[in-house]
Amino acid sequence: MSDKDFVTALRKGLDTLTCFSRVHSRLTLSEVARLTGCTPASARRSLRTLWHLGYLECDGKHYWMNHKCLLVANAYLASRPLPSLAQPLLDGLSERTRESASLAKLLDGEALIIARSTARRSLSVGLGIGSRLPAYCSALGRVLLASLPRSEVRARVRQMTLQALTPRTVTDASEVIARVDEARERGFATSDGELEIGVRSMAVPVFNRAGAVVAGLSIAVRADRMGLSEFIEGFLPMLGRARDRLGEQIYQD
């Protein structure tokens, strides 16, 4: 895209809208400026515009998302085939394993969940469609990074903030890259207590009919339910079968 076609104000507005999350549900002007890297004046213009259009609410100090934002989210889910194709398979996988299953795509340095089936004994409160997981320490993120050329993986990892979310989180860039390399070689990725204490997760890449990776499919268990080796041996075949069935239905996404 040429510079003349790039609308900076639109980018700033979208950056403002996407800085809201479960962690940052109510934000002040200064907090939005910090999260987006904009000046306070620029952040104020974006916030006031989004408020005027009905995408944000404001009490005079704090801003938060309005339900109108669901129009954008629903438009994606309704217009793309992958989430709807995956949902029955996720439900079946969750029912057979009695664990939660997720489908995600790579978005910058995160794995963005686009479909999910939650087991009754859900491991993560608040995890659902639209949730974002750090790619460097999640099984979904690693398996999605593994679909990229190694040079791109190195560049992306070097730009990430490798924060220790638990005592087991790998925060050394070289080791993160090694875990991604391992996922590429094995055809699946794991995360053992790195994202959440006491939780093990495993993910496989989902291919379309052209052989391109279009998403990652994962399942997670409590660490006290089974060891990592037992988890891989017992659940990887089921994960692979669900992945293959989904891939047979996808031409592109």
* Distance separating the two termini: 22 Å
CATH architecture of the largest domain: 2-Layer Sandwich
- The best one-word shape is globular
Q: How does the major sheet shape up?
A: 6 strands, antiparallel
- CATH topology heading of the largest domain: Beta-Lactamase
Instruction: Please count the beta strands (DSSP E, at least 2 residues each).
Output: 8
CATH class of the largest domain: Alpha Beta
The proportion of residues in beta strands is: 15-25%
Give, in order, the helices and strands.
HHHEEHHEEEHHHEEEH
How many helices in DSSP terms? 9
What number of domains? 2
Strand order of the largest sheet: 5-4-3-8-7-6
Structural class: alpha+beta
- Helix fraction bin: 40-55%
Radius of gyration: 19 Å
Mean pLDDT: 91
Domain IclR-ED: 68-252
Keywords: DNA-binding, Transcription, Transcription regulation
GO molecular function: DNA binding; DNA-binding transcription factor activity
Protein name: IclR family transcriptional regulator
Report on the architecture of this protein.
Residues 68-252 form the IclR-ED domain. GO terms for molecular function: DNA binding; DNA-binding transcription factor activity. Keywords: DNA-binding, Transcription, Transcription regulation. It comes from Caldimonas caldifontis. With 253 residues, the protein is α+β, with helices and mostly antiparallel strands. It has two domains: 3-70, Winged helix-like DNA-binding domain superfamily/Winged helix DNA-binding domain (Arc Repressor Mutant, subunit A), CATH 1.10.10.10; 80-247, Beta-Lactamase (2-Layer Sandwich), CATH 3.30.450. 44% of the residues lie in helices and 19% in strands. The chain has helices at 8-18, 29-36, 40-53, 70-79, 81-97, 139-145, 150-159, 173-186, 228-247; strands at residues 56-58, 63-65, 101-107, 110-117, 132-134, 189-192, 199-207, 213-222. A six-stranded antiparallel β-sheet has the order 5-4-3-8-7-6, sandwiched between helices. A two-stranded antiparallel ribbon has the order 1-2. Helix 2 crosses helix 3 (40-53) and helix 5 (81-97) packs antiparallel against helix 9. The longest helix is centred in the C-terminal third of the chain and has 20 residues, at 228-247.
